[in-house]
Amino acid sequence: MEGLNINKKETTQARSQEQIKPKHYTEDAIAKIQSMYEACRTNGTCDPDGIKEIIESSELSYMNERITKGEVPSFQQVLAISKKVSEELHSKFNTLDEEELHEIEKLTKRLEDRPNQINRAISGYSRSILRFHNLKRLKALQTDHNTLEAFEKADHDRRRNHEILIESLQVFQRTLGEFNIGDIVDEESIDDNDFFPKEMLLDRDQIRDWAVVTKLNNHLSFVEDEVAESNN
User: Fold this and answer.
1) Where exactly are the structural domains of the chain?
2) Cα(231)–Cα(228) distance, integer angstroms
3) Treating both helix axes as pointing N-terminal to C-terminal, what angle do 98-141 and 75-91 enclose, rounded to 10 degrees?
4) Which residue did the predictor score with more confidence, 172 or 102?
5) pTM score of the predicted model
6) What is the pLDDT of residues 60-74, one digit of tens each?
7) Do 20 and 197 contact (CB within 8 A), yes or no?
8) CB 208, CB 58: distance < 8 Å
9) pLDDT tens for residues 2-17?
10) In terms of DSSP H, where are the helices of 44-97?
11) What gap in Å lies between CA 104 and CA 109, rounded to an integer?
């Protein structure tokens, strides 16, 4: 009986180990998915399920889940609310006097450009993380002055791009607040003119993870579209 119990315990442990997904750190997830995206783009080797698995088993899974559940807005929602508010404001242009019109036109133009700023910040930050990751691996193999200098610069660029990203989201939030969007847009996710949750905008790590998940899901969408097109 004792031997039988040991076998049952070993079987349970083995099954538990099979159910545990491998953990991908953020930098590794970016590097792997970037490689899979490039493989799909250049030679047609497309693996959307593989990309999904990496995202879902990475440190980023919690943010991906929050976006999916609608707890945090996606970049598509950033575009949508910007467009919706902009269209509403354009419809009111003919009700304003010249001075008001000039001011609202300037604010509207700023609003319309905010998503582009966020998108550029996401791309710049994602590239800086990938470069930092590659140089960190190289630094582990080579310790010459040029490699160390390049690594330090990559680290500085990564931090700088992180600041640009944070600022882009905070500016977008403030710009929406200028329009008192709670009165213009009927949307449950907006509370006291907050589009992004306050706790997210105060957390550098959440902003980082939101941006990275956005970029990786863009890669996933591209790969899924390529697969769908090849099946037609």
Assistant:
1) 24-72+213-232, 77-196
2) 5
3) 170
4) 172
5) 0.80
6) 999 999 999 999 999
7) no
8) no
9) 333 333 344 334 333 3
10) 48-56, 61-69, 75-91
11) 8
